[in-house]
Design brief:
2 copies of one chain form a homodimer. Chain A is of the alpha/beta class. Chain A is built from 13 helices and 12 strands. In chain A, the strands form 2 sheets. Chain A has a 6-stranded parallel β-sheet, sandwiched between helices. A 6-stranded mixed β-sheet of chain A has the order 7-6-8-9-10-12, sandwiched between helices. The longest helix of chain A has 17 residues. Chain B binds a DNA duplex through helix 2 and helix 4.
Chain lengths: ~350, ~350
DNA sequence: GTGGGACGTTGAAATGTTTCAGTTCCGGTG
DNA sequence: CACCGGAACTGAAACATTTCAACGTCCCAC
């Protein structure tokens, strides 16, 4: 039981059980072809020696590892954690390991992670990229490694993607605010290099125009990141606007911004939703858990992950695989921050 | 450049560059011993073929992988994400990969993860265990795999651990409340099977007794988990207490509970901190971001992770390694939820 | 009694990398 | 001119697993 030197190998097990090493392998991989008595003997030997398969050797032989990888954009955002959880359940069903990496929004870290993953010969890569057009991404594709973009619709048809219709998301958020009677609304979000930000804003603008509202009353408050602290600072800028220009509601490009904005509003003595209504995006758990529960545009986070995993596995195993751009429909979850519960 | 079949190996590179395969290996591992001209030739061949080292083969030869693993207790709690980030920086410095796994508080998932990690021959395992005395943990130790318990002080001296003095944490939280004049305080937390919960409560009780306050005025509100929703339901129970028994402050065993409690209080129309002061534990980013910023007991989250990684690496590489129980000192971060900012 | 199929087991080959003892070559020293 | 030492490179072995053609044994059917 105790380790005397090296970990025991199939060879050691074979010797201990008095069989050839091919038989031990059969016990592991095709137990049916081995007679019951030999199988039992081998299994006892494995237990006694504390044998554990060496995954590297398996991989070397097989040519590919038994793992998937997800490179996420921002580990600090619970949204991505939930996506990862969806991926993990799918990976587990396929009996695969999952590497979870975090690029923290930095392209260099992303590249480094990808490099390592290629070296590991992972079966497939799921990624929410910093920049969907980056050089190192196209290289992955050229290498023939199955990969799927998560939460990012891509024009290029040489890979799968899983995303949510962000334009629609922007539309339903702002339509909800218009429904509640708001005539001056802020859009809080940035940087505009992020595709989601652009599309959510686009949706907001579309519906704004369709209702015939004046363009200048949809006020753009750009931020430098999708973070709580940027939300707070957007709140300050919002408070600094002259009162006739000041919006009565804000649509934030994600929930972290919304939480920051909410915090600033409460600190500044504004009543939410009476003085300022707020809509977020993603519907992370903390949105529902806020002091004033946040109205948010819900994305099917786990489903997103599960689908992405399904696609990458199909690409990895099915020779007739065709690339697919899966798109989900977002849904509004109305809560107190836009007046579900009105307080006198 | 394009894949014709298999990924190119050192052998292919050697053939393309017209050298032996040992030389290619030298270019990769000991560039100094290769003449400049050959090195350049080999490097060009590698670039042309798109050669990428096969990590499995390296591992097989080396006997161990170039990776660490962290098995975390609850991926939904940002606290653990921050710990993981600390570990990752350390791993990166040592040029190792990091597997991040999530047991979601379930022993069976934890065991499954550990199984896979042993098969992968990871260099070391960091873990915040569901149950520190579980069978599968002691087996890891017996296998001789370096491992470190994170955020868990263990009596057993056969491995390292990194933790925060939770008793002290409980003390400073409650002392802070006593300082602010509170004479009736609730402790919100559970289940008591979790070591941290027990110790934080113990610290609270100690300091309560030292100030000569009556035992029955430190009210225990047990919860079934350390989650936002349990915090909310604790809030309901708290509101249900007869007013002469109702505490004026609550010390929550972690920030998720505190956020839930805060939400309930705000919804119920209680003013925080005037009607109810709240102290959390962990000081996750969302604590500072709450509508009423939470006072919390800060743990050095990243430092915890970095130290754990340092210890496991020492155990893996230093033959004279001695097990170490690193303990950190928590600190109170006072914010509005206990009256840093008083509103008239 | 022989042919042949089924079943169980074997042994060798193959996977890609690293390491290390050897080999070759060349310039300098005695 | 023989010898030596070092620099540069080579080739084979080793790592642990899986696969597969081949082999032996037994039994049944003809």
């Amino acid at each position: 039981m105790t380790r005397n030197g090296r970990a025991p190998s199939v060879k050691d097990v074979a010797a201990a059980a008095g069989v050839s090493l091919g038989t031990v392998s059969n016990v592991l991989n095709r137990p049916a072809v081995v007679s019951a008595s030999t199988r039992e003997r081998v299994e006892r030997a494995m237990a006694e020696l504390g044998f554990v398969r060496n995954e590297s050797a398996r991989q070397l032989r097989a040519g590919t590892s038994r793992a998937l990888a997800y490179v996420m954009l921002d580990g600090g955002n619970p949204f991505f954690h939930d996506v990862a959880e969806g991926i993990e359940t799918a990976a587990e069903d396929a009996d695969l390991s999952l590497f979870v990496c975090n690029s923290s929004g930095r392209g260099d870290r992303e590249a480094k992670h990808l490099d390592r993953l290629v070296q590991q010969r992972v079966q497939g890569i799921l990624i929410t990229p910093v920049d969907p057009d980056a050089q190192h991404l196209t290289e992955i594709g050229q290498r023939g490694i199955p990969f799927v973009m998560v939460d990012r619709l891509s024009r290029a048809a040489d890979h799968c993607s899983v995303s949510v219709d962000d334009v629609l998301g922007g539309r339903i958020a702002v339509e909800h605010l218009i429904d509640r009677g708001h005539q001056r609304v802020a859009f809080v979000g940035g940087p505009s290099s992020i595709g989601q930000v652009r599309e959510r804003l686009q949706g907001a603008r579309e519906v704004w125009a369709e209702f015939g509202l004046p363009e200048e009353d949809l006020i753009n408050l750009p931020t430098e990141a999708l973070s709580v602290s940027e939300g707070r600072s957007a709140g300050e800028r919002l408070a600094g606007l002259p009162s006739r220009r000041r919006p009565t509601a804000a649509f934030c490009a994600n929930d972290l911004l919304a939480l920051g904005l909410l915090q600033h509003a409460v600190t500044a003595g504004l009543r939410v939703p009476d003085d300022l209504a707020i809509v977020g995006f993603d519907d992370i758990d903390f949105a529902a858990a806020a002091a004033v529960p946040l109205t948010s545009v819900r994305q099917p986070r786990q489903e997103l992950g599960r689908t992405a995993a399904r696609l990458v596995l199909d690409e990895a195993t099915n020779p007739d695989h065709v690339h697919e751009q899966a798109s989900f429909v977002p849904a509004l979850v109305a809560r107190a921050s836009t007046g579900l519960i009105r307080r006198p």
